[in-house]
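Onboarding guide, step 5: your first structure request.
Type a short instruction followed by the sequence, for example:

Predict the 3D structure of this protein.
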Amino acid sequence: MGNAAAAIAACSGIVPVLMAATGPVVSGPALLLGLSDLVVMNAEAVAFVSGPQMVAEFTGVEVGLHELGGVTTHARSSGVCALESNDVEGTLARLLEYLPSHTDEVPPPVPTSDPVLRSTPELRDLIPDRKAATYDVRDVARLVVDDGEFLELWPRWAARS
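The system replies with structure tokens like these:
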């Protein structure tokens, strides 16, 4: 694991590091997920350093595999999982469409049918007058981004209840 961690660390800030978890990722390899920029996990994925038995021995609390390190845990609580998908390869390919191959390269342009100076009067209805009021920024993004299309990373991280 030392060489892999060093290689990932050397890429940090230079080359985007994407990883996928499609099954058990245990011990050292689970730590590597935290070093990457983006992680895609499918429903079968579980990632943890110490398993349920070790957690029970140390804490006295019984916990299942998916509760300890399943996709829901990493999407909602740990923040390791940027995207959940049962089409991991397709999701990784989609992510790569948004990214340059390194920091010295401009991201590839995305074709759009939206006019450059498109008006968005609908924003007046979305953003509340009261400064302390809340609104869903995803609704704003859909109005202002090209063709209303964007890829939300970490959609379940720190979500409102």
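Each response can be followed by summary notes, for example: Strands lie at 18-21, 24-26, 38-41, 46-48, 83-84.
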